[in-house]
């Protein structure tokens, strides 16, 4: 019995060894055969151009932690085409939407699928900084335009900018909060405390406010950082109140969209906090927060590039369409999706079907005077230059809550009033200790 | 009297698969079942080699690479769970650490050799730290320690932004030039999968593997026999961690990108899910599990919005009806078919592996004789 076992094992080992050897030798031989064979010729140019179809791959997280924001940005994109028809000047816009689950590896796989299997001409999205970065390096390598309706990470249009990646419906994190700091200082505030999420988006959002405030004579007394998994905000609310009680003039709060905004505000108001010394960022005071908090937060001030209560025809038309179609007042995510769709439509209407770098050039040299955000142009690094609004929550005639602009900073660029640096690639990313001061 | 007693399987393994690491039973059935297994392996092997020539497009090939890389990571977890009885929630972070090693080298503008060196070095250091911290724990405590170290690595990746770029991640990480094309890289990954599987299989069959299984089944017995149980565990963790690090390096060369998500706990959990779906302690279980999870996540999700629900349901169904995973289930099916065809001819030796039916027969027989 022992001997049969041994010989069986020996046979096994021989077979396994033989197998591995065959594998390696076959793999070594494979390249020349494969290079002349089918696989390398497989990635084909899209055949849709001739018939006048722009194939769009839409990537957003419609499952996972960011599902609400991801779904809203897709809703905004679809809303435009439903309202205006998906044919512009003889060009049909065909959208294939994919879920990236907020995971960079999934996003990249889906981008491969959209490009290599579906043959899309452009990719719109995704949302999260890491997914955006993963997809951008892939699409830029192929010369496929990548439009970003919502992504806010600075480096996309700074350190890691590329010719094919364009921010179309949002701003860099610091860019959108810098005017908030300027405005707060102009209002006579001398000292401020900040409360921001403790990851890239929070660091960048805080850095914008901090620089705007300090550049205009303010002083940052304390910076509080909350992990991005924070669900219980009571401790942070009491820290903020203690700071205010000790004589600090105001508090700047920047969080990601979704649950954190209502979470902080509920804790703060329940503990008897006052709305007046607060200034929030785009997402902490987005429509989701307004719906969750109701009339308690009328009078809350925030800083953002999106103001649904702005009295401009394009904005109001879009808001009414969203209420009619989706039953809600649009926040920044829906607006970003809609804005990107309207931009693509405008450019194609003017210049016909474009793909690749032609489409990117057409967008970045375009001036969009009456967009839902106001007048939008693009800088040399494919980032938006557009207005930023200081907003206050008001109740509309329809009984719904709106962020209504009370101050406007026109044509805000991403360089925080300092101009583009000589070498954008050398910019050091913000973190807790580096706030750009 | 003694005859039926020798036939009873002394150790009832909860899971056996296409290639059980230890072959209970003996005799004629042994080689025939091996033949079935070898044919199965050969089929998968040939299919893997031929895939790029079967008209598969570049997306299909690169998705298959993703599956193979996930399978390598799952294999490393499978080795620890199956042989050592140690379920780790930290292997995603080991792979992530290796990926960051390569990413950091790339960010500094160093060449591919430095990428490999740094990835390897970090993998070994991190695995050693894991091993040292967890060497005296087992069961749920082992799980918690590995989870904690994993969270630490995730935290570093996310917060130490001057080195890791924070949540934005490190992009444009180049792989060696000779692996530039997607199909070249596919063959490389495929070869690495075969090598990793072979390494783990050889370790499993070695005296070291036998000692590990001894520790899994009874730590106190092994200790009383003079084995240094903690250091065996460290050794097992180093081997497993090395394979996980390999998966991390392959992943980063595949996507050219690393971010904290790569080191996140979700990746570790998915690795365990793959192992359980495929079959704990089986040779090809990790590959089957990886294929199921990756295909649901990346292909089914294009058609089904609630794909996570499907994944959950599949997981529950496998747990309920295929305790030994898909690979174990297939092996059982094969045995059952073979058992049916061979049983009329005497059936002197039971088929290899554990068959509940035959087992219960033996126990009742023993009761009767007693």
Describe this structure in words.
The complex is a heterodimer of chains A (437) and B (370). Chain A has 437 residues and is of the alpha/beta class. Chain A folds into 2 domains: 49-171 and 314-382, 3-Layer(aba) Sandwich (Rossmann fold), CATH 3.40.50; 174-304 and 387-426, Rossmann fold (3-Layer(aba) Sandwich). Chain A is built from 13 helices and 15 strands. In chain A, helix 4 (104-117) runs parallel beside helix 5 and helix 8 crosses helix 9 (260-270). Chain B is an all-alpha fold. Chain B has one domain: ABC transporter involved in vitamin B12 uptake, BtuC, CATH 1.10.3470. Chain B has 16 helices and no strands. Chain B has helices at residues 2-7, 28-50, 58-84, 91-107, 112-134, 139-159, 161-164, 182-205, 207-217, 219-224, 229-255, 265-278, 285-298, 307-321, 325-342, 356-369. Helices cover 71% and strands 0% of the residues of chain B.
Topology:
The complex is a heterodimer of chains A (437) and B (370).
Chain A: H1 2-36, H2 38-41, E1 53-60, H3 67-84, E2 87-88, E3 91-99, H4 104-117, E4 122-124, H5 129-142, E5 146-148, E6 165-167, H6 173-186, E7 191-197, H7 200-215, E8 219-226, H8 234-245, E9 250-254, H9 260-270, E10 278-280, H10 287-293, E11 301-304, H11 313-326, H12 332-351, H13 356-364, E12 368-371, E13 374-378, E14 384-395, E15 401-412
Helix pairs in contact in A: 3-11, 3-12, 4-5, 6-7, 8-9, 9-10
Chain B: H1 2-7, H2 28-50, H3 58-84, H4 91-107, H5 112-134, H6 139-159, H7 161-164, H8 182-205, H9 207-217, H10 219-224, H11 229-255, H12 265-278, H13 285-298, H14 307-321, H15 325-342, H16 356-369
Helix pairs in contact in B: 3-8, 3-11, 3-12, 3-13, 4-5, 4-6, 4-11, 5-11, 8-11, 9-11, 12-13, 12-15
Mean pLDDT metric of chain B: 84
| Helical amount of chain A | 40-55%
Shape of chain B: globular
Radius of gyration of chain A: 25 Å
The number of distinct helices of chain A, counting runs of at least 4 residues, comes to: 13
């Amino acid at each position: 019995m022992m001997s049969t076992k041994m010989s069986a094992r020996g046979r096994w080992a021989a077979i396994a060894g033989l197998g591995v050897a065959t594998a390696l030798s076959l793999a070594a031989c494979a390249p020349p055969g494969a290079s002349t064979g089918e696989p390398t010729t497989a990635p084909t140019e899209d055949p849709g151009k001739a018939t006048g179809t722009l194939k769009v791959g839409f990537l957003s997280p419609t499952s996972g932690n960011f599902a609400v924001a991801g779904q809203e940005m897709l809703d905004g994109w679809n809303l435009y085409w439903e309202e205006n028809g998906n044919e512009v000047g003889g060009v049909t816009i065909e959208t294939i939407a994919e879920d990236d689950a907020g995971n960079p590896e999934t996003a990249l796989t889906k981008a491969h699928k959209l490009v290599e299997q579906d043959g899309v001409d452009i990719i719109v999205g995704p949302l999260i900084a890491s997914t955006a970065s993963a997809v951008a390096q892939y699409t830029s390598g192929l010369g496929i335009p990548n439009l970003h309706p919502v992504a806010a990470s600075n480096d996309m249009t700074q350190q890691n900018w590329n010719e094919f990646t364009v921010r179309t419906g949002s701003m860099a994190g610091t860019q959108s909060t810098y005017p908030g700091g300027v405005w707060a200082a102009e209002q006579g505030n001398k000292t401020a405390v900040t409360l921001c999420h403790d990851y890239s988006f929070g660091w960048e959002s805080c850095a914008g406010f901090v620089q705007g405030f300090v550049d205009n004579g303010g002083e940052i007394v304390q910076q509080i950082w909350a992990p991005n998994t924070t669900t219980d905000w009571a401790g942070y609310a009491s820290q903020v109140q203690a700071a205010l009680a000790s004589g600090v003039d105001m508090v700047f709060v920047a969080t990601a969209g979704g649950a954190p905004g209502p979470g902080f505000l509920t804790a703060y108001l329940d503990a008897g906090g006052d709305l007046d010394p607060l200034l929030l960022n785009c997402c902490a005071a987005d429509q989701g927060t307004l719906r969750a908090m109701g009339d308690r937060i009328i009078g809350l001030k925030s800083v953002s590039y999106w103001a649904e209560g702005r009295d401009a025809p394009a904005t109001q038309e879009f808001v009414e369409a969203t209420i009619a179609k989706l039953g809600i007042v649009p926040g920044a995510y829906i607006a970003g999706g809609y804005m990107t769709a309207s931009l693509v439509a405008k450019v194609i209407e003017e210049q016909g079907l474009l793909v690749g770098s032609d489409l990117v050039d057409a967008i970045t040299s375009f001036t969009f005077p009456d967009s839902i955000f106001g007048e939008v142009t693009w800088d040399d690094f494919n980032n938006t230059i557009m207005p930023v609004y200081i907003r206050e929550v008001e109740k509309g005639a329809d009984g719904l809550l709106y962020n209504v602009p009370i101050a406007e900073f026109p044509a805000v660029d991403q360089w925080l009033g300092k101009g583009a640096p000589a070498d954008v690639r050398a910019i050091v990313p913000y973190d807790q200790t580096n706030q750009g001061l | 009297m003694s005859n039926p007693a020798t036939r009873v399987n002394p150790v009832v393994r909860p899971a056996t698969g296409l290639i059980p690491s230890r072959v209970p039973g003996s005799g004629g059935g042994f080689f025939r079942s091996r033949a079935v297994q070898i044919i199965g392996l050969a089929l998968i092997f040939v299919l893997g080699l031929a895939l790029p020539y079967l008209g598969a497009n570049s997306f299909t090939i690169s998705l298959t690479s993703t599956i193979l890389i996930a399978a390598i990571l799952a294999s490393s977890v499978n080795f620890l769970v199956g042989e050592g009885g140690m379920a780790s929630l930290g292997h995603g972070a080991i792979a992530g650490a290796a990926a960051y090693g390569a990413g950091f080298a790339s960010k500094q503008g160093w060449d591919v050799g430095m990428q490999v060196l740094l990835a390897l070095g970090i993998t070994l250091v991190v695995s050693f730290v894991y091993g040292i911290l967890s060497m005296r724990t087992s069961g749920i405590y082992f799980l918690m320690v590995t989870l904690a170290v994993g969270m630490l690595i995730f935290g570093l990746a996310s917060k130490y932004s001057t080195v890791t770029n924070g949540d934005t991640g490190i992009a444009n990480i180049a792989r060696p030039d000779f692996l530039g094309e997607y199909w070249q890289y596919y063959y490389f990954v495929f070869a690495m999968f075969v090598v990793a599987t072979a390494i783990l299989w050889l370790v499993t069959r070695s005296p070291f593997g036998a000692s590990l299984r001894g520790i899994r089944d009874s730590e106190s017995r092994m200790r009383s026999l003079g084995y240094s149980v903690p250091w065996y565990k460290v050794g097992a963790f180093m081997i497993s961690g090395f394979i996980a690090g390999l998966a991390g390096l392959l992943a980063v060369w595949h996507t050219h990108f690393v971010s904290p998500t790569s080191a996140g706990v979700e990746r570790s959990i998915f690795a365990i899910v793959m192992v359980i779906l495929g079959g704990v302690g089986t040779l090809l279980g990790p590959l089957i599990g990886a294929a199921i999870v990756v295909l649901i996540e990346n292909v089914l999700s294009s058609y089904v919005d609630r794909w996570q629900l499907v994944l959950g349901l599949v997981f529950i169904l496998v747990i309920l009806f295929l305790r030994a995973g898909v690979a174990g289930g297939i092996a059982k099916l094969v045995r059952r078919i073979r058992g049916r065809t061979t049983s009329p001819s005497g059936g002197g030796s039971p088929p290899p592996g554990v068959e509940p039916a035959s087992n219960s027969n033996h126990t009742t027989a023993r009761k009767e004789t007693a």
